Amino acid sequence: MAVDLRAVLLSAFDYKTEKYVIAKNKKVGILYRVIQLSLLGYIIGWVFLTKKGYQETEESIQSSVITKVKGVLLTNSSGTGPRLWGPEDYVIPQQGEDVLFITTNFIETPNQKLGYCAESFKVLDGRCRKNEDCPEGEAVVAGNGVRTGRCLKKDRNSTGTCEIYGWCPIEKSQRLIVPLLGKTENFTIYIKNFIRFPKFGFSKSNVLDTAGDSYLKTCLYDAIAHPYCPIFRLGDIVLRSGHDFQDMALLGGSIGILIEWHCDLDKGYSHCHPRYTFTRLDFNSTANSVSSGYNFRYAHYFKNPAGETHRTLLKVYGIRFDIQVHGRAGKFNIIPTIINIGSGLALMGAGSFFCDMVLLYMMKKSTLYRERKFEKANKYVI
Ligand SMILES: *[C@@H]1O[C@H](CO)[C@@H](O)[C@H](O)[C@H]1NC(C)=O
Q: Residue 182: CB within 6 Å of ligand 1?
């Protein structure tokens, strides 16, 4: 059969339009409108209004956190007498990072000197019954020093502990009853947070531009009264995480401070605000009291008038604050708008596809509609 090339070429420029069959069927008609309406509601209400489908979003946020703690207190320990604690003493590290430890309790062992003394009875590897149990020169596993070869016991038949060379006297274990630095509950932490959304070139800080110096000197964060004050009372932070400061201060713990920036940049600069949430991180319902808590040791070294080196050992308990910053910004952009409108229209098409299925295959008069919809062209007739 010869193909008429001219006819084929010309037909490429014909416009073909679809032919519709109107089914006078109220049930399917109502079903179609209901499907259309709910799809329209979904597209407008959820995709566009709730999820802001017309916006381009940026989830990676650049952020810098600077902290400063204020408050002083006086403790009176039996070892070294009165002691004044400033932020430079109880905040570790001192440079104001986004992870900071605040000392709330301590055990002090003053005036330790290198020498010979008995290992603590609590260290299992340090126990002995005879001198042979204490090989000279070997360190006690998880202990305080190096064995000297002597076993020190109260009497012949008891279990003693090895003599060690180390910092003596060794730390005495104590039962802690009250947090010695419990007054830190009323101390404040000033959190400065600078953020930037690089895609939009948008930057902001959590310190209000309108806030003067005097406001920052007197305000205290409160979720309702002062949501934009960047100064927090430590006791409030712990309270908002659902715990009691004094309970937590006894053995220490860890608190997460989350700063969330959800910014709709179409609404303008002043509508972009941080939201703070506080959670206790070292705590869950299955953990027992053995695993919760936070402590570590450090020492101050000094020379006495005779020139001998001494040190003061501190075992400190405290609360560690981890500040994390999350953020998301959105701004109108024509491309996501067109993509979402396009997928919305395609979804509307799904409605007529579903109604076609019902009409053509599930109704009593389906055969009738099928005959109307699918015309069989007979080539002999043509
Ligand atoms: C914190 O301050 C309040 C009011 O100034 C005071 O009543 C409370 O005893 C203080 N808390 C501690 C632990 O010192």
A: yes
